[in-house]
Amino acid sequence: MKFNWGTGIVLAFIGFISFILYFVISMTVNKKYEHDLVTENYYAQELEFENELHKQRNAQALDQDLLWAHTEDGLVISFPKDMSPSDITGKVFLYRPSSKQLDFESAISLSDHNLLIPDKRLLDGRWNIKVDWQYKGNSYIFKKDITY
């Protein structure tokens, strides 16, 4: 059999197609390359996005924004002084991007304008904090990426 340019081109195409098929099949089968969504209910959260935008607009209209501070006791979240602490309800969600096991949620119950999250629940590093609260029928949300 004589090896000519036509045979070489056909063999090169077959080799290239074989390599691509091997690459695609190995990437889809191998568990090492599997990527999960950041949250379990990603699509349900996407539907709530418009509601969240409304809460952000309400929060931006406030005279005083939520403040946070790192103290010896833990993370202190300060709510606006013109709001009555007993009427503030909601929850605080702390998300640790590096470890899902460290994520936690805490209900807001205030006796003064400050909410303390104990130091023992927080490790040093990056946290995403989300405070979703209601005051006299209005909903507000505060989001911040912090380094604790």
Characterise this structure.
- There is one protein chain.
- The chain is α+β, with helices and mostly antiparallel strands and 148 residues long.
- The chain has two domains: 1-35; 42-147, Sandwich (Immunoglobulin-like).
- 29% of the residues lie in helices and 31% in strands.
- It has helices at 5-29, 42-47, 49-60; strands at 67-70, 74-78, 88-95, 104-107, 114-118, 126-135, 138-147.
- A four-stranded antiparallel beta sheet has the order 4-3-6-7. The chain has a three-stranded antiparallel beta sheet with strand order 1-2-5, with no helix packed on it.
- Strand 6 (126-135) and strand 7 (138-147) form a beta hairpin.
- The longest helix has 25 residues, at 5-29.
- The radius of gyration is 26 Å and the shape is elongated.
The general outline is: elongated
Helix/strand order:
HHHEEEEEEE
Q: Sketch the major β-sheet.
A: 4 strands, antiparallel
Q: Tell me the helix content.
A: 25-40%
Stated plainly, the CATH topology of the largest domain is called Immunoglobulin-like
Domain unit count: 2
Provide the β-strand percentage band. 25-35%
> Multimeric state of these chains?
single chain
* Radius of gyration, in angstroms, nearest whole number: 26 Å
Low-pLDDT parts are none
Average pLDDT confidence is 85
Count of DSSP strands: 7
Number of helices: 3
Strand ordering within the main sheet: 4-3-6-7
The CATH architecture of the largest domain would be Sandwich
Span between termini: 73 Å
CATH classification class of the largest domain: Mainly Beta
Structural class: alpha+beta
